Amino acid sequence: MTYAITVSFTSTHRGLYEQWLVLDFEMRPVLLRKLKVRIDQQLLDDTKDPVLNHGVILQSAKRWTRGNRVIIPCSCRTEKQEDLLKEYKPPQLNIHYKPSCNNQTALTDENYKAKMHEFLYNEERAEDQVVSRLNVCGQITTMDRLDSPKFGMEFAPQGELFCSVSIPYKLTIDSPEGLALKRSVQSALIAPLDSHHPNSKVYEARVLQLITRENQIHLQLFKQCCSDLALKHNKSYKMEVQFQLDRHTLCSLHKAVDLLPDTSRVLPDLKNCGVPVSDITYESLNSKQQSALGFITGNHDGRSFTAPLLIYGPFGTGKTFTIATAAIELGKDPQNKVLICTHTNRCILDGRHGGTFRET
């Protein structure tokens, strides 16, 4: 038999919207189709080459690190943040990190922390590859003020300057580069084009996220950078710019792994674990969602350890709805305490309005 399924979509905002259509027949995901709708923009082939801006070339040179350059930092980070970044060095500088391909070693109590560190380093390398596509060699233009239609006129602090950098990619939220810029980039390293020898100074600059345009990024250049390079406002200079992955979140996750006192909480012995049981039913939940609800809200004899519950699946399978339903049910008992943690406030708002988590 053949069935034609119509999927309707409305939106008041431009952009690319992606969603998974999943048919599980109340058993398991059987048919999956990723739908993609671009509003008020021509649908582009993701494999096409980026549109290059005049006067800018892609930079594929070796990434600048503390191992091959003298990095002059800005004053944006606290001493505690600096110590955390030094404790967990980037993968290319960490002598304990050895990239492994297709490592199927099972997780155990003995290797749990090492595997978690490896996963985080692999994720960092993958994100850094996307961020590195933004690196450019070309002309920058300095200025002492910026005019934003949304935020008005902004003046650079005394001794500092702003500059604009043209990027050979469209920095929209629906492009990998635009998403990486919004989510993972807060700073860049900048230096004159003639500073290629080892141990040359490179200067950290702050990315002004709120004034970023589709093919242009604005940076804030700090005092030492402007002084050492004798930069003046309303001038053009040939510079190399390398955008930097914000490592603080990843380093915090490394720290959390090391501070974990007992891996049995996250990697329990399932043979000795109890399964909570609940008689609460919701007609709006399918069998899998009902099982998850029963696990979260149920009880067992108390003599067994309860393992953590991991809910995962493609977009639109009801993860947020199931968790929200369980939280509401638990909230009916004033003795219960519910703590909900997410990476962003957006996830909480999506959950309240029946949306789906961006993360899994």
From TrEMBL:
Q: Which organism is it from?
A: Ameca splendens
Q: What is this protein called?
A: DNA2/NAM7 helicase helicase domain-containing protein
Q: Which ranges does the record mark as transmembrane?
A: none
Q: Where is the DNA2/NAM7 helicase helicase domain?
A: 285-346
Tell me the domain of life.
Eukaryota
